[in-house]
Amino acid sequence: MEFDMNQIPQTSNSNGKIEASESQNSEVHSENSAVQSVEPENVDSNTLAAVLQFLQKHNLKGTAEILKKEARLKEDQLRDAQALQVDSEATNLLSSYKSEGDPNAYEKAYLSYRRFVESSLDVYKHELSLVLYPLFVHMYLEMIYNQHESEAAKFMERFSTDQEDYYQEDLKKVSFITKKEHMKGSDLMENFKSSQFTVRMSRDTYSVLKRFLQDKNQSIVMNVIQEHLYVDMYEGVPRNKAQVESTAGAMEGEANRQVNKTKIYYGLLKEPDIQLPVVEEEEDGEPGEGGEKPKKKKPKKDPLLNKKAKSDPNAPPASRLPLPDLRDIDKVEKVRALREASKRVALGPDNLPSICFYTMLNCAETVTCVEFCEDSSLLAVGFSDSILKVWSLVPQKLRAMKPAEQLADIDKEAEDVLVRMMDDKTGETMKVLYGHCGPVYAASFSHDRTLLLSSSEDATIRLWSLQTWTCLVVYKGHIYPVWDVRFSPHGYYFSSVGHDRTARLWATDHHQPLRIFAGHYSDVDVVQFHPNSNYVATGSSDRSVRLWDCVNGNCVRLMTGHKGTVSALCFSTDGRFLASGGADQKVLLWDLAHGHLLADLPGHTMTISSLAFSRDGTVFATSSLDGSIQLWDFFRMTDESSLEDVNISGHNPDLLKRSNAIESLRLARYPTKATPVMSLHFTRRNLLLAAGMFEG
């Protein structure tokens, strides 16, 4: 099955915007066009090197040779000039740090601004303090660029401890830049050059800041703010300390509100009408009884299929993203899922879910990932020795397909042809898949359980058949380890993320990615598909969460608030909410309609490993490497009336009220003895499955 995705460009730039990936076929009417005589004393060698570089880039060899002859440049002069030219781009980008000022003036300027923040009114103090960290970093880099190394080292040593705890890891990397030469080619410098640090403040706070800069003639502070900061100003009351801290912490500062104003379709797609052969049953009365003719049979209607699917006003148009057509086997599976859902247990504060825990023994140091399939019948586990194991969690064993010679004898028109294809002699409770040459970091089942994806340190993604138990495709696109991979809920598409700071959208029948989502400033560690398959959420080591549009490749939501690497993501069953967990032991809940933070759920003492919503959307489960599972009342957390109160101006006024009553939202906490919980999954009947490796 192949969909035409060519109408959408293939790559994106660092701001998440898509650029057309068409090759530039520049027409050159006359390569040997007349070149005016160039006097070497009138034109410097750097300019000539730049022109020659341009000509060589566009394969204009003849013109380049003519220019060399006319310029009468020697080879060694040209080589030196081209080497300088290569460095010029980085130099131009760093030139904003150039200053002739006294190195001791930086310390005075920083102390002056810090005293100003401390002496400001409490109502402005918290927003003004957001400038301290970027001001400190850029002052340090400016001193390094202007070769005041010893003063910069003292400046770093004296004031680095003043910064927030969550910035200390970044500051450690900054402190390694001790010479001007270190600034070129540094990953950290690439981040500072490609973006401005975003600081959100009210108009009143900004007026106070502006008055200070003008009255005190703070030229150093003013230059840093103008060159390296983006002030996202809003109308309204300045935020208090809790509100400021709730969204601070990301590498790029706070989320720019303009990014979160894009309309998104967070609703679910309308379920297709499923038409299956009906089961017939006879009416009362025996055939031929009393000399009468037997009565006609009437079709037995399935009440589950008669329910008309409601259309969600927030759902994307059905034609927005090409999705595969439902096969007969998919329709049968949907009916099976509906029947199981009809037996679902209704959960709530008075009816908590049962938990079934799968413990792996003798593998505490080697298990790298755990994944349940959608219908809870299969479990995949990745290991650090590059193997992948799949277990059956139901009585049916895992069977392989018969050889081709035996398949030729099977009646293809038979109703149970899929059963006949499988070889009972090969049945096992566990299968092992070999192929990767590095630790397996993630696994994901397709919705029909016939395919399995895995990603590894070897920078590849493998697609495995769960019918032949062999590798079908090796996808090569990432150039560094691939941390996570996830199948779309509708199949066909999948997404991957890795150490190269990108997320990629793939289709199973394309060996190259359809989209490259670029915008994060560090490793992208986790990815999750939206239930309607139109969006992909990513969590990164830059401590931010982003939502990407699969159709146009744009970043449509940027959410900041984590103080550590984002390690887990999960969408609510209705598609409106996104939960994220991180190495900062926090679980944050976001409203995708506006990109606002709704709740901060504390309680875990180690990295959050997995998140799961119950099938009816009433209970929310979180797990951590601390070996505990917590259950939360999600229905109360997202009460309709409170969502209407959310202020779109610039902050989250409702978050504080929730934090005061957070304990009442926690329904239960279940600790294990010595088993970090690695994965959570609700079955179709709302039984909670969990898995982890015993470390005793």
Average pLDDT value?
82
Q: Biggest sheet, strands in spatial order?
A: 8-9-10-13
Tally of separate helices: 20
Radius of gyration from the CA trace?
A: 30 Å
Tell me what portion of residues adopts beta-strand conformation: 25-35%
Distance between the termini: 49 Å
Shape: globular
- The residue ranges in which pLDDT falls below 50 over 5 or more consecutive positions are 1-42, 83-93, 277-291, 297-301
List keywords for this structure.
WD40/YVTN_repeat-like_dom_sf; four-stranded antiparallel sheet; 27% helix; 20 helices; WD repeat; Transcription initiation factor TFIID subunit 5; alpha+beta; 696 residues; 35 strands; RNA polymerase II general transcription initiation factor activity; globular
Please explain how this structure is put together.
The protein has 696 residues and is α+β, with helices and mostly antiparallel strands. Helix content is 27%, strand content 27%. The protein contains 20 helices and 35 strands. Strands 8-9-10-13 form a four-stranded antiparallel beta sheet, with no helix packed on it. Strand 20 and strand 21 form a beta hairpin. Helix 1 packs antiparallel against helix 2, helix 4 runs antiparallel to helix 6 and helix 5 crosses helix 10. The longest helix is centred in the first third of the chain and has 20 residues.
